[in-house]
Amino acid sequence: MAPKIVCFLGLLVLVPLQGFLSEQLGYARVRAAYDEKGAEISARLQELGITRENLRLCIRAFKQEELLEIWVAGHTGPFQLFDTIPICLSSGHLGPKRQQGDGQVPEGLYTIDRFNPFSSFHLSLGINYPNLSDRIRSKGKNPGGDIFIHGSCVTIGCIPLTDYHIKTLYVLAVLARDAGQDNLEVHIFPFRLIEGFQNAYAGHPFLGFWQELQPMYRAFEQSHLVPMYYIDSQGRYLIK
After folding, report:
1. Where in the sequence is the domain holding 175, given as residue range(s)?
2. Cis status, amide bond into 16, omega within 30 of 0
3. Distance separating alpha carbons of residues 149 and 159, to the nearest angstrom
4. I need a labelling partner for 209 at 20 to 30 A (CA). Which of 2, 104, 182, 236 fits?
5. Rounded to whole angstroms, what are the CA distances from 22 to 1, 17, 47?
6. In this structure, what DSSP letter does residue 181 have?
7. What is the C-alpha separation between 1 and 69, in angstroms, rounded?
8. Which long-range contacts link 19-22 to residues 24+ away (Cβ below 8 Å)?
């Protein structure tokens, strides 16, 4: 394996390339979380017939229910429910985030784009908000950013978990990335978009947006596969 060159105190040093897990275990908090949760995670994956070497991860969050679902799968095949954990605090109200400082938790389809082992909130996983849909629909306003799933059970616009649960989720995300999954899906819904919600929220300003998200919700519910979708020029989520 070819080495990489890094600069340390002004000196060029050759160090071997590492896998993502090895790199993350170089951070004290990640190493402690792995030592605490690794065996438990491996045992649960074994129950589901999944190995760490072929792990894929999908996260679904429901704002009204204050629940986060962790789904796992092998390289192929449907996802299986690993666990459902509480979102321990909320901010804002039902509806997507559209501008900086509104205190809103986003709604839509995202991926994890950052791993922060030095978070002020123990450990954190950044999502790629604002995505293309958010930027289009913000209509020139600053949509804000820096939205994370994190520990410490405090929030303004993020998805907070207890430190106990963020350790499990963070380690799973590291293992999935180490196994080769580049796009770790995070789907954030206002609530479970079951049939009939349209009647309960008739006249709500975001009803049309939620109806747009429903096919994504329903497709996963029916197949336990992440649906293929795209974002059109108006910022709408559409299934391919």
Report:
1. 19-192
2. no
3. 5
4. 182
5. 15, 10, 25
6. -
7. 37
8. 19/178, 20/174, 20/177, 20/178, 21/174, 21/175, 21/178
- What is the reported pTM? 0.91
In angstroms, the Cα distances linking 5 to 16, 25, 37 are: 9, 20, 33
Please tell me what DSSP assigns to residue 114. Answer: E
With respect to residue 125, please indicate whether it lies within any of the assigned structural domains.
yes
Using an 8 Å Cβ cutoff, are 191 and 90 in contact? no
Q: Which of 60, 58, 49, 52 is nearest to 79 (CA)?
A: 58
CATH number, domain containing residue 91? 2.40.440.10
Q: What is the mean pLDDT of the chain?
A: 92
User: What is the band of 17 on the pLDDT scale with cuts at 50, 70, 90?
Assistant: very low
Residue 4 covered by a domain: no
**pLDDT (tens digit, 9 = 90+) per residue, 79-119?**
999 999 999 998 999 999 999 999 999 999 999 999 999 99
CA angle 54, 161, 128 (to 5 degrees): 60
Q: Is residue 72 part of a domain?
A: yes
3-class SS of residue 56: strand
The residue whose two tokens read 């106990």 is: 164
The secondary structure of residue 53, as a DSSP letter, is G
Which residues 6+ apart lie within 8 Å of 106 measured at CB?
96, 97, 127, 129, 130, 134, 147, 157, 188
How many structural domains is the chain composed of?
1
Max Cα-Cα span within the chain:
66
In a domain, 166, yes or no: yes
Please tell me whether residue 199 adopts helix, strand or coil conformation: helix
